[in-house]
Amino acid sequence: MNSALNERLQTEADLCRNEGADDIANLLDETIAELAQLRAELETMFQATVSVLGDDEHRGHTTERTLELCRNAVVNYINNHPTKEAQNDN
Q1: CA–CA separation, 49 vs 68, rounded Å?
Q2: Sign of the CA dihedral 82, 83, 89, 90?
Q3: 6: which residues sit within 8 A by CB, 6+ positions away?
């Protein structure tokens, strides 16, 4: 995550905590953690896509086929890594 944004969110959480607004501070803390998790998941999806595109078997494909391979890599990742909300629904 953008370190400047992370620092600003953390500063606001600390200010809220100092003012007794623990509920808002906790929400900001959760937001920071969720953004970090999303960034990690995006990095994993990016690496999966790069590995598919870097595979010799897939070189020379058309743009449409390359996009399809990328989409499939992302969909497979999402299906294998449900969100916290989806896990809570089960």
Answers
A1: 11
A2: positive
A3: 32, 35, 36
State the pTM of this model: 0.56
How would you label 52-79 residue by residue, b for 16+ Cβ within 10 Å and e otherwise? beeeeeeeeeeeeebeebbeebeeebee
Q: What is the DSSP letter of 90?
A: -
CA–CA separation, 69 vs 1, rounded Å? 26
> 24-57 pLDDT, tens per residue?
999 999 989 988 888 888 788 777 777 766 665 6
Two structure tokens written together for 47? 């690496």
Q: Which amino acid is at 9?
A: L
